[in-house]
Structure formats: structure tokens, C-alpha cells
């Protein structure tokens, strides 16, 4: 089996540094299932190609008693087609490159360079379409050549074997990682025992791209050799560990933001004081509950195109992206720094192109009309209005309800009555220093009812967080729905 990797990044021979393999010599490696050979088929300044040739010792494999390999016959495609053997060889022989390490050319490791990978024979029993479904969302230009079953008997039709060429401008480590995971997914016949280790490997190598891949379920299922329980475990962890990572960055950014907010910036994710409330749900933070409440309303509204206004560092955007029903999501914030954090949180630079096309981040203010906000079905404005100057609320109202005019609007804001429950909050002060006001339930409901009346919406209210009998819930939500055009005439 043969894999070649080429670049036209100049000087192209730098590929030798990236792969840690000298272009001038042939190198061979003994693996426990055969020999791997690395050599270069071209080494000009303009283009350089490295080849990994894997020579599998199938007879040894069949004879070895203690291996878990079961090969029912001596004559099969194993020596010739790309399979999990090639992934193992790739990790063994190009380990440093796969892990993105290169002392001599560190800048190249992090650079996207023009790359081409060619696998001479790879099986795809679901045809060419499946090859495209796997690689195109990752940004590859895919070229395939399907081979006939027998050149002398064209009437026998096509074989499931393809020559596959992938082209992209990306980091070499990304290309190798994608190949490492997806070759066995295509071959669908792993040569070694599949256990929990494989889940770990999949999570490690799939980090940053698998979660957003439209075929992630099938990829995990094939990679884990159709083991339902392992697949379920992997998919769950793929989501939760991403959240874990996200929480790690969030705490780092919150520390960062604490500095920024004290210097007067308007960036705010969660009022600092809310982390030490006297009475508060332990399991799901109040902010999570707000986001989940908004998400639920958005899902039920049937919206396809959604605005997140004052999106901050993108916590809601992240949840929205995970719902396939939302075709397009636009996040807007006045803070450039918050948008940068959102970009990081969403891993936008590594997003699969189709996923990337679903999201737009806009730097802008909610108090100025912006034509780009028109044409959306719903808008979420989560913990934002209290950051606006009361004098600017009427501008905000027009921008959102008159000009953007989505059918559904969700606004959440703190319930000021609940502040007495926060032991660390002095009477008369706000939960966050950038808050310009905090409203009681009556104040919020009065304002919202007037806005709805003026703009042709109806509004309902819901508490967020555990309700206290006297002071209500810590946060409050208003859900505005556009009244049908002729509803008023009918009344
Ligand atoms: N909705 C996010 C962030 C809430 S914090 C979340 O729930 O996680 C409030 C956000 O509103 C901040 O990111 C702040 O930069 C933004 N903001 C404040 N005034 C704004 C304005 N006039 N236009 C747009 N965004 C604004």
C-alpha cells in the first residue's frame, strides 16, 4: 500500500524537515506487521513528494497465534489497500509530523501550506460519494479514480477500490490526522482489538474537527468497528470534553475579563457576584439555565436563521451550532475582544467549511440600524439590555423590533428584586459594574409590554432559575412573537 504526500510550498524540500525524513535517502522501518519504507519521488524546489510504502507480511499475521487478527484466507486485499495498518505505520513513521512537532522549521508546523495526499488504493464500499462526504467537509478538494474489478473483464463492473487524491492548503499535522482517522473508517476492518483505548485515540485525534463533522456518528461507528456502546461513549465525550475544554478557557478568560472589566470595558460574561450567591442551583449555573431556556424557545419557534445579539464570547452560539435546524446563525457584539473569544471558543479557524458557512460574527452596536440583521427568524438578546444606557433603549427597540423585525425575540435580564438574596451585594448596587440598570419584574414587564404594543408583537414572560416566593427568580425572560398581520383587524 502506498501513500504519497506532496507540497508546492517553496522551498518544497522543507517537507523533509516537516516529516523528519531526509529527502536524500531511503529509510526503512520494521513494524510488527511488516516493513515501512519512506522515500522521495521528487525533490525540486517547486515540488516535493514523499512516499510511504507499506509492505505487510500477511503470512506471518495469519500464522501468529497470539494476535487477535482473524484472516480467513491467505489471498485477500490486505497487503494492497489502505487500512488501519497504514494508520499505524503513519503514526509510527511520521509521529512527530502527526503531532505537529518540528524543531528546524517550527513556523512551518503552524502554517497552512499547499498539500496533496494520494492513496493508491483505498476501499470505499459506499462509493465515491462516501469519499466526498468524509473529506469535503474538512476542506479538501477530492479527486477519485474508481478501479474495475478486472481490466480483462470490464463486464464484471466496478470494484470498491479507488485511487484517492486530496488537495488542501492546511497544516501537515491536520492532513495526517485526518488520514489517520479516516483511512480505517473507509476500510472498515481494523486489524487489532477495539477497546476503550480506541475511544481515547479517536477523541485525541478527532479533537477540533470531528465534533463539527456532519458524518461524525458514522465516522465514530466505523472507527470503533460498529461497537454501539463505544460509539455512544465516544460521541458523548466528544461533546462533553469539548465543553470541559471550553470551561477551562472560560475560567481563563473570566480572569482576563476581571482585569478588563475593572478598567471599565463593557465586556461581561457572567456577573462576577453570581458565582457566590447565597441561594443558587449548584448543578447548572444560572447562566447555563438562561442559555438553555433561550435555546428551547428558539427550537420550538421553528426558526432557521437566528440572531444572537450581544453574543459575548459565544456561549449561546456554541449551543446553536450544535442544532442542525439552525441554518444560519449571526452573532453580534460591540466588543471586539468578546468576538475574538467567541471565535476561539467555536474553533472557527479549524471549522469544517460547511459548518463555517453557518455562522457569521459581526462587530457592531445594537443601537445603530444594521441592514445585515434583516431577514432572520428569531433573535436572542441574553443579559444585554441592562448594559445599554436607558436613553438608548428606544434606539435599540427600533433596531430590533422595527428594522431587524424577526418573528421571535427573546430578551433576558436580571430580576433586581432577587438581589437581596446575594449576600455579597450591597443594597442598591448592581450585579455587575457595567450594568446601567436592573429592573424588577414589573419594570421589565411594563417596558416589554409597551415595546410589544408599539411594534406589533405579543409577549409572554418566564422566570429563569429557582423562584423565591417573595422576590421571584434570579433572572427573567420575555418572549416576543410577531402578531399575525391581520390579527388586529380581526379583533
Ligand atoms: N449574551 C452573552 C453575553 C452577555 S454580556 C451571554 O449571554 O453570554 C453582555 C454583552 O453585551 C457583552 O458582550 C457586551 O459587549 C455586549 N454589549 C453591550 N452593549 C452592546 C451594544 N450596544 N451593542 C452590542 N453589544 C453590546
Automatic annotation (TrEMBL):
Residues 307-398 form the Methyltransferase type domain. Its EC number is 2.1.1.386. It comes from the Bacteria. It is an enzyme of class 2 (transferase). Residues 1-238 form the Hen1 N-terminal domain. It catalyses: small RNA 3'-end nucleotide + S-adenosyl-L-methionine = small RNA 3'-end 2'-O-methylnucleotide + S-adenosyl-L-homocysteine + H(+). InterPro entries: 3'-RNA_MeTfrase_Hen1_bac, Hen1, Hen1_N, Hen1_N_sf, Methyltransf_12, SAM-dependent_MTases_sf. Its cofactor is Mg(2+). Pfam families: Hen1_L, Methyltransf_12. Keywords: Magnesium, Metal-binding, Methyltransferase, RNA-binding, RNA-mediated gene silencing, S-adenosyl-L-methionine, Transferase. Belongs to the methyltransferase superfamily. HEN1 family. This is Small RNA 2'-O-methyltransferase.
